[in-house]
Amino acid sequence: MADRARGEYTRAVNLPPPPELHQRPLGGAVVRSAAYAFSSAEEYADLLAGRVEGYSYGRVANPTADAFAAAVAALEGGNLDRETVGEAFASGSAATTAVLLTYTHAGAHVVAARAVYGGTYALLHSVLSRFGVSVSWADPVDLDAVRAAIRPETTLIWVETIANPTTRLADLPGLAAIARDAGVPLCVDSTFASPVLCRPLESGADLVMHSATKYIGGHSDVTGGVIVGTPERVHPVREVRIDTGGFLAPDEAYLLRRGLLTLPLRMERISASALEFATALADHPAVEAVAYPGLASHPDHQLAGKLFDRSSRPDGGPRYGGIVTVTPHGGFDAGLALANGLRVALNASSLGGVYTKVSHVASSSHRQLDEAALATAGIRPGAVRFSIGLEDTDDLIADAATALDRLG
Length: 408
Ligand SMILES: Cc1ncc(COP(=O)(O)O)c(C=O)c1O
What we know:
Blueprint: H1 8-12, H2 41-48, H3 63-77, E1 85-89, H4 92-102, E2 109-113, H5 118-127, E3 134-138, H6 143-149, E4 154-160, H7 172-182, E5 186-189, H8 194-197, E6 207-211, E7 225-229, H9 231-244, H10 250-261, H11 263-282, E8 287-291, H12 301-307, E9 323-328, H13 331-340, E10 346-347, E11 357-360, H14 371-376, E12 384-387, H15 393-407
Parallel strand pairs: 2-3, 2-4, 4-5, 5-6, 10-11
Antiparallel strand pairs: 1-7, 6-7, 8-9, 9-12, 11-12
Helix pairs in contact: 3-10, 4-5, 4-9, 11-15, 13-15
Bound molecules: pyridoxal-5'-phosphate.
């Protein structure tokens, strides 16, 4: 039947496709399709059976999400001689969930860093425990403790490059050796470092995970997650992602890929600003402690010098990221008062981007932890986490100093 013979409604739902592109659009493409049309029933069957590559259904795979995941894989694994692939998720927590579901089972045991993001703690402590998975918490720079925590039933080691909010580091090369000996994967949540500061796969980690909501997106306007590793490690997680539904929507994927273009620039400025900020506040009389890996007083400062990339720095020194945790004297209430006293930094959720944000840790990101769990994680009740953004450093320092002065 010729097109003009078709009815109006039929023609309306059979609009001509967009033009085929012969030039590379620098802005990238957003493919919003939740479903795809095939040239034949056989092509559909071949796609579903994995006999040919392509796209069949929005939850299974999307070209814009794949472009984002491939871009992160290039940043994390570009220097490696083994193939690295990425997989995108609806959030960092969706990525964490898929990794945990892939690499644990009833009766399995996980060794996790004692300071991890509160949501990760909740997944391990409250959710997976209901399915018979146990956890041992260990200090990720104390390699003997990590080795001692490994059991025959251990199936996964989970750490953060820079822990939230303590800013303690993980000894990634040492942990990778332990994981190799034990025959279990090491997964590194590298959200706070971003691929600009540190690339855990280069230290021997098996999987790296990011909450892309943070530095990768960078503008507080998108939620997403991503993992990178060898195809052997990533593909099983992808299968769980498909079955559990935590896919990254195409518009979000577009924004996250765009965020990558300015990530090195943002991390450079944020790191320089955070170092100045941490140095300036460390001697304030109202301050009990400032935790920042760039300070010589930080217990992991030497390790930071080894782990963090310095290749593109004019001065050859590493960058240390944007998270500075300031604990005023006076405990829980003093922490709240410091957060309340700020006028430039925002009391805001999330972290890692253009805005300087603070959170009183014990009442926000780590509210799931009781007093004992906070102490085990090395988190003081008054700790205030600053995620330094792009504002003028002098304004940030004056803002925090004024709020601290008021604490008396
Ligand atoms: C270190 C870290 N990992 C994972 C997550 C979870 O990411 P999302 O909020 O994108 O699910 C967060 C969120 O704050 C985080 O800070």
